[in-house]
Amino acid sequence: MGFEADFGQGAYALRLMPSWGLWSNGRQIEVSLRQQRLLAFLAVQGTSRRELVAGVLWPESPEHCSLDNLRVSIHRVTSALPGLLRADRHAVELSPRVQVDLHREWELISGTNAQADGLLPGATGLLLGWYEDWVLDEQSRLQRARTAYWRRAAGEALAHRDYAGAVESATQVLHLDVLDEAALEIMVVAQLGLGQCISALQAIVGFRRRASSELGIAGSPTLDRLEARVRHAANTSFAGFPGGRPGRWFA
Questions:
Q1: Is there a cis peptide before residue 18, judged by omega within 30 degrees of 0?
Q2: pLDDT by residue (tens digit) across 58-107?
Q3: How far is residue 114's CA from residue 4's CA, in Å, rounded to a whole number?
Q4: 122, 124, 234, 221: which is closest to 181 by C-alpha?
Q5: pLDDT digits (tens, 9 = 90+) for 205-218
Q6: Do β-strands 98-100 and 12-15 pair in parallel, antiparallel, or remain unpaired?
Q7: CATH code linked to domain 3-103
Q8: H or E stretch including 86?
Q9: What single DSSP character describes residue 205?
Q10: Confidence tier at 114 by pLDDT (50, 70, 90)
Q11: 21 pairs with which residues across the strands?
């Protein structure tokens, strides 16, 4: 089911994840790149003063030229797509009729969407292929918020001894930030709770490998402590096995 199918008749649906797209009444609408940037900026920033929008979208133009560019863009959008924008002499914003996937994502992260029962934040990128500073800033902010959401969920699951849930949530964190040591610790402790000693050690080994590759540092006190805990748990678990403990992972 496409993103546009989530919206009712007459509503505008603006998609920013993973790429830009606009729909109305189930029909995708073609919009020029200049107008795409305007609509995406307003979706990310909310109601904004004209001077700010013009300065960000046309940073290399003199102020009067950038304001003229903005004025033309607003006119083209409002002429072709009535009800999509609201603008006055001072500010411009998306109409409340526009439903934006990014806004829904932030509602899921903050827990403010009362109709989102059972829905969870995703991991889809934002405006992939766009490299303007305001886009990169929002991409970073969104990733930090998603990471914090899943790390909090993992910690809460672990506190309630929902070890499988803790592993699942910690995995989401490490998908977003492969070097999140706090998430790794939650995952390892939860895996030990499930009796998955080999998986726990594999997670540590993989984390060390990534840290070495990206940071040039393969160890830390937390990793050393976790690994010692896993090895102790494994040795205890396998102490009664014929021939002692297996040697491949726990030597």
A1: yes
A2: 999 999 999 999 999 999 999 999 999 999 999 999 998 899 999 999 99
A3: 20
A4: 221
A5: 999 999 999 888 87
A6: parallel
A7: 1.10.10.10
A8: strand 85-87
A9: H
A10: low
A11: 15
Distance between CA atoms of residues 155 and 145, nearest Å: 15
CB 84 within 8 A of CB 10: no
CATH 1.25.40.10 in the chain is located at: 149-238
Long-range Cβ pairs for the range 153-158 (8 Å, 24+): 154/183, 154/186, 154/187, 154/190, 155/186, 157/190, 158/186, 158/189, 158/190, 158/193
Q: What tens digit of pLDDT does each residue of 195-248 get?
A: 999 999 999 999 999 999 988 887 789 899 999 999 999 887 654 444 445 444
The pTM (predicted TM-score) of the whole model is: 0.85
Looking at the DSSP bridge assignments, the partners of residue 28 are 23
Closest to 111 in 3D by CA, of 149, 68, 62: 149
Amino acid letter, residue 224 = D
pLDDT at residue number 10: 52
Q: How many CB atoms lie within 10 A of CB 30?
A: 8
Long-range pairs, 230-239, Cβ under 8 A, ≥24: 230/188, 230/192, 230/197, 230/200, 230/201, 230/204, 231/201, 233/192, 233/197, 233/200, 234/197, 234/198, 234/201, 237/195, 237/197
Residue ranges of the chain assigned to CATH 1.10.10.10:
3-103
Q: Tell which CATH architecture fits domain 149-238.
A: Alpha Horseshoe (1.25)
- Give 187's contacts (C-beta < 8 A, 6+ positions apart): 154, 166, 167, 170, 171, 174, 200, 203
Residue type, 37: R
